[in-house]
């Protein structure tokens, strides 16, 4: 079982980080809405933790082959979103000029921001660590564990796999490998007095 280190950030420094991340997320959402507006009414931009990925239509509002060609799209799959709603999902058709252009526009949106708080906070704070460790439910018996950062709007909650100075950290520092060493943390991040914040990091 993977050991984690937990930290909490509050005060003006944490609020500044939260504000910057939320600005990037709102900018991402604005860009998604701009793209949505270029499609027929009822088209929804689907977002994942990796950013904008595809567009969706209700099952009774499927695009015709002619519409897909005009919009530079192709049907990808049918998905369930927002609980139990089934939708047709579409992605850029890179065989078409319009599809290639749309693919590039999506790439530019996601390069600026993925719209995911955890992802943006890790990049801004340069706090990230990935470790391989045992996992009983994995077919190989191993799994990858990642840093997670969450917020309640006022505080930052950070969960990092491993601990400062653990075996993996020492080996990477001794070998000069910068990847996946335990990150250097800002002084305003401190260990929590209790464990109530862990609900944000499940």
**SSE ordering:** EHEEHEEHHEEEEHE
Number of helices: 5
| Uncertain parts | none
Give the helix level as a range of percent. 25-40%
**Extended strand count:** 10
Shape: elongated
Strand order of the largest sheet: 8-9-1-10
| Structural class by helix and strand composition | alpha+beta
Report the span from N to C terminus: 15 Å
Radius of gyration: 21 Å
The main sheet comes to: 4 strands, antiparallel
Instruction: Estimate nothing, just give the exact number of structural domains.
Output: 2
Strand content: 25-35%
| Quaternary organisation | single chain
What integer is the average pLDDT?
88
Describe the structure.
The protein is α+β, with helices and mostly antiparallel strands and 202 residues long. It folds into 2 domains: 4-21 and 117-201, no CATH class; 28-112, no CATH class. 34% of the residues lie in helices and 29% in strands. It has helices at 11-37, 65-71, 97-112, 117-125, 167-175; strands at 4-9, 44-48, 51-58, 73-81, 85-92, 130-134, 142-146, 148-151, 156-161, 189-190. The strands form 3 sheets. Strands 8-9-1-10 form a 4-stranded antiparallel sheet. Strands 2-3-5-4 form a 4-stranded antiparallel sheet. The longest helix has 27 residues, at 11-37. It is elongated and about 60 Å long. The model has no long low-confidence stretch (mean pLDDT 88).
Per-chain topology:
Layout: E1 4-9, H1 11-37, E2 44-48, E3 51-58, H2 65-71, E4 73-81, E5 85-92, H3 97-112, H4 117-125, E6 130-134, E7 142-146, E8 148-151, E9 156-161, H5 167-175, E10 189-190
Antiparallel strand pairs: 1-9, 1-10, 2-3, 3-5, 4-5, 6-7, 8-9
Helix pairs in contact: 1-4
């Amino acid at each position: 079982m993977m050991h984690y280190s937990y930290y909490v950030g509050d005060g003006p420094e944490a609020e500044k980080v939260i504000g910057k991340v939320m600005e990037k997320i709102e900018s991402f959402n604005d860009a998604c809405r701009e793209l949505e507006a270029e499609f027929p009414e009822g088209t929804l931009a689907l977002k994942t933790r990796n950013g904008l990925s595809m567009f969706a239509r209700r099952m009774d509002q499927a695009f015709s082959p002619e519409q897909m060609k005009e919009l530079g799209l192709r049907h990808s799959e049918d998905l369930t979103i927002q609980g139990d709603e089934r939708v047709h999902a579409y992605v850029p058709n890179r065989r078409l000029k319009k599809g290639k252009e749309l693919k590039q526009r999506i790439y530019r949106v996601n390069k600026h921001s993925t719209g995911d708080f955890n992802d943006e906070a890790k990049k801004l704070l340069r706090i990230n660590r990935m470790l391989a460790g045992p996992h009983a439910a994995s077919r190989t018996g191993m799994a990858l564990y990642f840093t997670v950062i969450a917020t309640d709007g006022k505080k930052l909650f950070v969960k990092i796999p491993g601990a400062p100075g653990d075996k993996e950290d020492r080996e990477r520092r001794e070998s000069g490998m910068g990847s996946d060493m335990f990150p250097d943390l800002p002084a305003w991040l401190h260990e929590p007095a209790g464990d109530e914040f862990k609900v944000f990091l499940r």
